[in-house]
Each structure stands twice: as structure tokens, then as C-alpha cells.
Amino acid sequence: MFTGKLPECFNMLSSLKFFDISSNQFIGTLPPSLIANLTSLEYVDFSHNKFEGSFSFSSFSNLKNLEVVGFISDNDKFEVETEEPRGWNPMFQLKGLALSNCNINMHKGSVVPSFLLHQHRLKKLDMSHNSMEGDIPTWLMKNNTMLEFLSLMNNSFGGVFSKPFYRNPNTRWLDMSGNLMKGAISKDIQKFLPSIIRLNLSGNYLEGPIPSLIGDLSELEILDLSQNRFSGEVPLGLFTNLTRLEVLKLSNNIFHGEVLSGNLSFKLRLSILHLDSNYFSGKIGDLDDKRSILSGPSLLDISNNFFTGSIPGWISNMSYESELVVRNNRLGGQFPCGTNSFTFLDISQNHFSGSIPSCLVSESLKHLHLGSNAFTGSIPNSFCNLTNILTLDIGNNRLFGRIPKFLGELSNIRILLLGKNEFSGNIPKQLCQLTNVSLLDLSSNFLSGSIPGCLQNINRPSYQAFTDVDHFSGPSSSYSYRNPRNSWFSMIDHPYEVSGLQDEVLFTTKTLSYAYKGNVLDIMSGLDLSCNKLIGYIPEELGLLTRIHVLNLSHNMLTGPIPVNFSSLANIESLDLSFNSLSGNIPQELIKLNTLAIFNVSYNNLSGRLPEMKAQFSTFNKESYKGNPLLCGPPLENQCTIQSLMIQPTNEERSHEKWYNMDMASFYGSFGSTWFVFILGFIALLCVNPYWKRRWLDFVEECMYTCYYFVCDLVWKPL
């Protein structure tokens, strides 16, 4: 945690060989004079500080013993300049170089450093996260036959990738992800990279099929071809020949075929398999060797494809905790129970049916997505054991009954989606205990009663809850390629990150259903109680939900005014109160809501002048207010006059109102009181007027005789 500027007195240490100040808080610029006098320097690492400004790499030119240089910047304010002065020649021969996120030659056309043309002993080279342009620098591998590690990820290198590299038997790591490369993978790639262990070509524009000879890369442990334009069928050798393969990512391509049909064989180490977002089809087959269950993938993602059939039993019988995502396919039937304990399970947007299996519940489960299926029945009582659950999505099914009170005891939960089911009864006040909930959806059910005012307590997560990155993304797998005998290269031996699963949910915002996933869920918050049978006033306490972005109370039977303290919803983007029986004015204070993009109060009983056309309210048109004939002022055509502000609804207007726009409590009260007054008046009349009292008693007596003879005729006539 050292801070401040780096003291220039270091330049007096002429015998210094090892200079490592990485992972501190140093600021300011790096003066060239600091380095020039350190003629004995062999190793220098300035990574992970807060340096700013430009640094000229030519400052190292006279350091003939220099072997390792590390600049890994954590901000965008640091630049490494390598082209000045022109024609400078280095006296050193580097073995390791890391210039990551250093804006290399940002003001010189973002070219590849030319001094690398003179380097022939490089073993590890990391120039990732820069803005370098031009063709793929194939000469790097030609000039450095001992190059083991090469990372050029997240640059702007283009060109055709068909035969980009010279044969290099020593290359173990190659990361060209996040560039602009085109073309296809060479059919004889095994000749160019015979010893490759980790190959990452994701995030480019590569196309064509995967060559079948890729199965001859016998040392391969990680292969990432995701986010390209690859097509065709996946070679069988990827699953059978590569016995060392641990991670295979083919996501977001145009692959097709029945890749998981037949008898599967997960050889030895395969632990992470991503096949999501392609055009794969067919059924998921059984394992050809039941013993291979022990070595099956611990993370399997086949979402957004066209798989059919049911989930085979081996998936639920692995002997360790695993993660499974089969979202958005055509799978159906009942989900099989087994011995496996899932930590992340997403089977949403399929055709699974029957009751929700209780066997899915385990203390290790953190993310459970069962939405958009055909599950029936009630919420299992076993859900009370989901003590570590963070995301629970069971929306858009056919579940019924009351919402269990024990859901309020799941204190860690962040996302609770119960909408589009057939739940009935009141909203349990126990849900108010879920102070960490950021998304709560109870919409499109048959919930009744009033809105609990204590819902103000939701969406108040602690600092720890917001900083726990595991809440919304699955664990990422890291693999570190490190030589324990030579710590001099440790500064560029960073882990090879294999991104894990991301939480993804559907939530209605601004009248549309959006998919929110990953880090966005850390800041997104909303409450949706729409399309129910809720009655009563809107609790003023909801105005204390200052973090909330979406509030939807539409299509209910709510009455009373719009709470004035809704003006405190400082982060609100969408506020929908339409199709209720709200009355009174629209509070003028709502013009303070500077983030409001959607505002809908249509089809209520609101009256009076609209808020001034200022700030966000200047963007709302008359569609936001229609169905309220007593509202006036721009953007409506109704002009505000004394008469219009005092006028009441006409009989014709009342006749066009929906039945649910009537205040039923007032109706029943007035109806009962009217009859009570009528009966009292009738009794009083009989007491003070003997004539009408006699007439009434004669009428009652005549009715009694009539009923008596009528009953006698019915009983005795058949006899």
C-alpha cells in the first residue's frame, strides 16, 4: 500500500538487479532518468500501480542485462511509447515482457513495438488489452522460437487466420481473443502448434468448420472458440481424442447437428463444456460408461439451442456439486432426481411439467431458475431449506395456492420471481423481511388484499451483499501456468480466466420484458405487483424505495391518491399506475423525478391540472393520461378552466367505466346504511299510525294463511 511518487533516488542504485514495486499505490509519471542509470538491472516490474502519463520504453535501451519487464496498468491514463527516438536499437534480449492495458503507441497509430523485431529469446509475451492495429504479427513466433506464452487479446488485429503462424513446437499458450481476425482455422493446425495447451480464439470473425485434425492436438487442455461465426458439425475427436481437455467453449456460433446424441464419452478431465447459443438439436444421450460419471463436466451449458427429449438421469447422479444450464430449449417431461447437489441450475424456458421436484433443494444451491415451463402444484415445503439461495425464479408456470410465508426467511435472496402463475390470497408480510431483494415480481396472479406498507424494507442490501460478485455470476475457473523454479516470470504468469455462468432473468421494464444478466443485476432493482386484485390505497411507505428503478402497480383495484412522496423515488425509470381507480390530482412534486422515462396513469379517476411540462414530464404524451376525462392541461387537449377543475363525471362517462373501477367498499356501505334507515323509518311509521299498523298486521296474517293452504294442498292432494 505504498503511495506517492516513486523517489528518483532509486536511480543511484547502479548495482540493482531486481526491481519490483508491483501491486502498490504509486502515482505520477515515471521519469526516464529513473531507469537509465540502473545498468545492472535484469528484472523490473511496475505493474498494478496508479501511474499516469507517457513512458518511453527506449529508457531501457542501454540495459544490456535486462531480461524481464512488466507494465500491467490498472487504469487508462498510462501510455507506453516505443517508437521514439526513431531507429533506437535495444542492447537487451528479453525473455519476458508484459505490456498489458498500456495504450501502446496510442499517439503513434497504435502500432506493434518495432523493437520486438530485434528480440529473439522471448519466452513469454503479453500485450493484451491495448488498441494495437494492423495485421497479425506472425513474425513474433518466427523470431522467437522459444516463445511459450503469447497473449494479444483485446486488440484490433485483423487479417486472415488460415495460416497465421510459423511452426513453433514450444508454444503452450496462445490467446488471440477479442480481435478482428477473419477466415478459417487451418486444416493442419496441429503442424503449427503441436504442443499447444491453451488456445483462445474467441471474440473474432472466424468462420467455417472446425478441422477434424484439431483432435490431434494431444496436449490441449483449454479450447475457446466462442463468439465467432464457425459453422458445420463439431468433430467427434473433440470429445474422444483430446484426453487432456478440461475446458471446451463453442458458445455463440452457428454450429448444428446432434452433438450430444447417442452414447457419450467424457474422457478423463473434461470439466467445463459450453455449447450454448448455437443450433444444436437432438436428444441428450446416455453415457457409454457409467463410471465416467465421475469425470463428467461439472459445468454444462447447452442453453439457447434446439435440444429435445428429457434430461438423462446421469446428469443428476454425478458425485459432486455441479452447474447446469439448459435454458431455452425444447426439453420436457419431469426433471430427474439424483444424488447430485447443484450450485447453479437453470432449466427455464422449456416444457418441463409436473410438480417441482423436492430433490432439487440443497444447501449448496445458489441460483435456481425454473421459470417459463409447465410446472403445476404449490411451492414445495422443502424450499424452506434453500438457506443460501440468491436467485429463485419460478415465474410463468401453473403454480397455485398461497405464497408460503417461509420465503421471507430466505434472508440471502436477491431475486424472487413468482409472476405469471395462479397464486392467490394476500401478499405475506413476511416478504418484507427480504431486505436484500432487488427484483421482486408477483405480477399476473390472483393476489388480493392491500399492499403491505412494510415492502419499503426490501431493496436495502448491505454493502457486503452488493460487493459479493458471486451473487450474479457463477464461479470462474482459473488455470495458472507457472514455473515454480523461476519466479522471475511470475509477473506475466496470470491465470487463464474461463468465465463462469452468468445469472440471467426476465423482468418487465418500460412495458417490455428484458433479459438482465451478469453485473447489470448488481444495480437493477424493481417491484412488480401488476395484474392482480389488490385493493386499498397505495402505501405512502413505498416512496421510501429510493434505490428502485421500476415500480409497476397497474391493473389492480387500487383507490385513493397518488402518494406525494413518490417524488423521493430518485432512481425511478418506469412508474406504471394505470388501470386502477386512483383519484385526486397528479402530484406536482413528481417533476423532480429526473430519471423517469416511462410514466403511465391511464384509465383511473384522476382529475385536475397535469404537472408542468418540465424535465422528464415534457417527454410524456397524452397516452400516459388517457382514460381520465377530468385531467386537463398540456399535452391533453382539455384546457384547464374553473369549470373543468370543479366538474364531476357525467352519467354517460360513468356508464363507460369498467366494473372494477367502482369502490366496492363504499358501495356495500351505502347499500347497507340505506336499508337500515328504510327499516327504521318503516317501524317508526307503524308505531305512530294505528291505521297503517292494523293494515300491516292484516297483510301479514293474510300471507300466513295463503302459505298455509298452499303447503296443505301440496301435501294432502296426492293422498
From TrEMBL:
What does the record say about its membrane topology?
Single-pass membrane protein
What is the recorded name of this protein? Answer: Non-specific serine/threonine protein kinase
> What broad class describes the main subcellular location of this protein?
membrane
> What keyword terms does UniProt attach to this protein?
Cell membrane, Glycoprotein, Kinase, Leucine-rich repeat, Membrane, Repeat, Serine/threonine-protein kinase, Signal, Transferase, Transmembrane, Transmembrane helix
A Pfam family the protein falls into: LRR_1
InterPro entries linked? Leu-rich_rpt, Leu-rich_rpt_typical-subtyp, LRR_dom_sf, RLP_Defense_Trigger
What species is given as this protein's source? Helianthus annuus (Common sunflower)
PANTHER family referenced in this protein's UniProt entry, alphabetically: RECEPTOR-LIKE PROTEIN 12 (PTHR48062:SF21), RECEPTOR-LIKE PROTEIN 14 (PTHR48062)
Gene Ontology molecular function: protein serine/threonine kinase activity
